[in-house]
Amino acid sequence: MFDLDNTLHDASHAIFPAIMANMNTYIARVLGDGTTPAHIDAVNAARMLYWKRYGATLLGLVKHHGVKADHFLAETHGMDDLLSMIRHEKGLGQLLRRLPGRKVLLTNAPHRYSTMVLRHLGIQRHFSHHIAIESMRVHGQLRPKPSKLLLRKVMRRQQVTARRCILVEDTLANLRTAHALGMRTAWVTQYLKVDDPIGMAHPPKRLTRPGWVDVKVKSVKHLPTRLSRLRRNTVIE
């Protein structure tokens, strides 16, 4: 299972700043009085509170402010110049072709956005399934990563056990949940920034590999050289 943003491409370069600006505008409008948007301090406080409490700011907005998830996602990920903002390594298609096993894209980004990015990268055909946030519902409730309920549902749908899965991600919270369920985990670090407000994907001082990460790699292109460690106790079809 592969994440998308900051795993397969550099979202921190331009995309995350644009999403953050859109998100701040949206939250300010939601928290405002209908005429005046909320102050940026209130916006930042709400965004962080909901991220820490629910694992995604969106869930807090839905639960406490009646925000429609589809509307939020469309507003925050709507970028007219998206394709010009994408930065990525060459050879991703060849990499995915070389790696054994079935590949599933599992992203907390919306489907329209993630589809555009995949097509621009030229790698959509390498994934047997593309699971975006709109499809991350369990018992009718939105449950994006790092939800254990979500990961269990994905495994049931894919008809695999945890020991047959590897999660490749930049976000440590997601890797921690996957590890707790018995998956192997690979942490991709090259696009992470300490001051990046989206994802909270890494420790604040240095990129130290925690115990729930089996393999730490700078780039997904280094995965083939670490397969022996990832394969330990893992069955890859």
Describe this structure in words.
The chain is mainly α and 237 residues long. It has 2 domains: 15-82, DNA polymerase, domain 1; 86-230, HAD superfamily/HAD-like (Rossmann fold). Helices cover 41% and strands 9% of the residues. It has 10 helices and 7 strands. It has helices at 15-31, 40-54, 57-65, 69-76, 82-85, 92-98, 111-121, 148-158, 172-180, 227-231; strands spanning 104-106, 129-131, 137-138, 141-142, 166-169, 184-188, 215-217. A 3-stranded parallel beta sheet has the order 5-6-7. The protein has a two-stranded parallel sheet with strand order 1-2. Helix 1 (15-31) crosses helix 2 (40-54) and helix 2 (40-54) packs across helix 3 (57-65). The longest helix is centred in the N-terminal third of the chain and has 17 residues, at 15-31. It is globular, with a radius of gyration of 18 Å. Mean pLDDT is 91; it is low at 199-204. This is Pyrimidine 5'-nucleotidase. Pfam families: Hydrolase.
CATH superfamily of the largest domain: HAD superfamily/HAD-like
Order of helices and strands: HHHHHHEHEEEHEHEEH
| Helical coverage, percent range | 40-55%
Mean pLDDT across all residues, rounded? 91
Top-tier CATH class of the largest domain: Alpha Beta
What is the CA-based Rg, rounded?
18 Å
Biggest sheet: strands, sense, closure?
Answer: 3 strands, parallel
Instruction: Kindly name the structural category.
Output: mainly alpha
Number of helices: 10
**Proportion of β residues?**
5-15%
Strand order of the largest sheet: 5-6-7
- Number of strand elements: 7
Q: Unreliable segments (pLDDT under 50, ≥5 consecutive)?
A: 199-204
CATH architectural label of the largest domain: 3-Layer(aba) Sandwich
End-to-end separation in angstroms reads 13 Å
Structural domain count: 2
- Gross geometry: globular
CATH topology of the largest domain: Rossmann fold
InterPro entries: HAD-like_sf, HAD-SF_hydro_IA, HAD_sf, Pyr-5-nucltdase
Protein name: Pyrimidine 5'-nucleotidase
